[in-house]
Amino acid sequence: MNETGGTTIVNTAVTTTGAAPETEPVVEAAGERAPGRGRWRRTVATVLTVALLVTGGVLLVEGRQLRDTPATSNRALTDSEATTRVAGDVSNALGKVFSYSPQATAVTKESAEQLLAGRALQQYAALFGQVEKQAADQKLTLTTHVVRAGVTRLGGGNAHLLVFLDQVYEREGKAATRAAAQLSVTARLRDGRWQIVDITSR
Asked: What does DSSP say about strands 2-4 and 7-9: parallel, antiparallel, or unpaired?
């Protein structure tokens, strides 16, 4: 302390010896928090990765289920070329096996053996004997045209169709008679050709 002209001057000394201890804990604290933040970030990244994997798995399963639904597995709804082909083959077959004349029942029978199979062929064979006799006795001619054939289900080499027929009966010396028929038909693909395996009248 110095006194000069009645004025007291106090000398203060600033020491730096205590500054270092005050800043060291801050540095240490910062160094301790850094590893904690790194672990937290790694944990978050791991959780996000697991969540993405789980979400991807769920979407994959749902996608498979969607593809495997009856609607999407029915090619009649998605494959117009295959649908047109089976409808055409079945229509041609029905026109041949349900058309005959007194002089050509053998031709009809031969066509049936090629175009029908399974239960449909068995049913047809059981009834065709009566048809042959009726055609010969009554001079009966039957002409069948398919008005419309709709494929309701197609897949796995099998097809289900709803078919509308227009049939004309002609007896010798009498006016022709026209009738309509509706059939449920099941066809099966064998050796690249559609064969009718079941016919049910509706």
From this structure: antiparallel
